[in-house]
Structure formats: structure tokens, C-alpha cells
Design a protein that fits this description.
It is a single chain. By secondary structure, this protein is mainly alpha-helical. It is about 70% helix and about 5% strand. It is built from seven helices and two strands; from the N terminus they run αββαααααα. The two termini are about 25 Å apart. The relative contact order is 0.16.
Length: about 180
């Protein structure tokens, strides 16, 4: 079995090196968009970022490969920025966002795709609300204070993904389904 540039799984079940590399690059891009392209929200000590747009774009272009990339890239950004207590919830939440987005990414018409992206971001907002309320001990009022920022982040991710996905959809990427 020689090296192959095919993104399909090999007989052993492992992905090709090229597919793994593309997934790693997506994780790195999500990490950069989450950690460097940030807009702080002083009132909540949190931040809004463009990582969700890259997660949705990745799900649209690469399908299921976006799930581990979203989980790892987002979690690493939380670790770098000092939000260590959010690392595990972020890993799970952003993986779920990518999974829901991947389910709807290849749907037609465009409105159905947008609906799946909206559902993914609603799951993100609700999940962070529950994590902050029940696990972090912020209380309902404290957790509710972060909802507008998360909603803005999700909405901007949907808008950017819906604008750029048709433009990038013609690009043939390794690992794309």
C-alpha cells in the first residue's frame, strides 16, 4: 500500500495523510479565527470571534472532517486565551455545532442549509447558557448576560458562511465529501 492522495479511507480504516493534513489545517484556521480575530465584551469578560464562521464553512466544504477540527481548534483557543474552565465544554459544543452543520451543509435549497446552520448556532448559544448556569455557577442571570454575545457570534458566523460557501463551493478540496 503506497501513499495516496485520495481522501477516501484506506482498507485499514485510517484516513489518508492528505485528508488528515487538511483537517489539521482547518483546526489551525479555526484556532486563529477564534483566538486572534476576537472582539472583547468587557461586561461579561468574554469575547466574540469569527471561529464559528470558519466552523460552518469547514462543515460545508469538508463535511464530517470539520467535527474534530472544530472541537480541537476551538478548545485550543480557549486554552491559549486563559478560558481553561471552558476548554472541555467548548470541545463538546463546537464539535456538536460542526456535526449539525455538516448534516445540513450539502442540502438544497439554500434555505434548508441556512436552517441547519441556524440550528447549529442555537445549540451553541443554549449549550453555553446551560454550562454557565449549571456547571460554572454563574446563575441564570449571569449566564443570560452572555447570550447576546453568543447570539451575535452565531449570527455573524451564519451570515459569513452563507456568503462565502457558494464562492468556495467550487473549490475541490481533499477530504471533501
Amino acid at each position: 500500500m503506497g501513499t495516496s492522495t485520495s481522501p477516501r479511507t484506506s482498507r485499514s480504516g485510517w484516513r489518508s495523510p492528505l485528508t488528515l493534513a487538511v483537517g489539521g489545517m482547518l483546526a489551525a484556521l479555526i484556532f486563529v479565527a477564534t483566538s486572534l480575530l476576537t472582539f472583547p465584551i468587557p461586561m461579561t469578560s468574554g469575547y466574540v470571534h469569527l471561529g464559528d464562521a470558519i466552523i460552518l464553512l469547514g462543515a460545508g466544504l469538508l463535511g464530517w472532517l470539520a467535527i474534530p477540527a472544530a472541537a480541537l481548534g476551538s478548545m485550543l483557543a480557549d486554552l491559549l486565551l486563559g478560558y481553561v474552565t471552558y476548554a472541555l465544554p467548548t470541545f463538546l459544543i463546537k464539535g456538536a455545532v460542526a456535526a449539525i452543520a455538516a448534516l445540513g451543509a450539502k442540502r438544497k435549497p439554500l434555505a434548508l442549509k441556512a436552517l441547519f446552520f441556524l440550528l447549529a448556532e442555537v445549540v451553541m448559544v443554549l449549550s453555553y447558557f446551560l454550562v454557565e448556569w449549571l456547571l460554572m455557577g454563574y446563575g441564570a442571570a449571569g449566564a443570560w448576560a452572555n447570550v447576546p454575545g453568543n447570539a451575535i457570534q452565531g449570527a455573524s458566523g451564519i451570515i459569513l458562511a452563507m456568503v462565502f460557501l457558494p464562492l468556495l463551493g467550487r473549490v475541490k478540496l481533499p477530504g471533501a465529501r
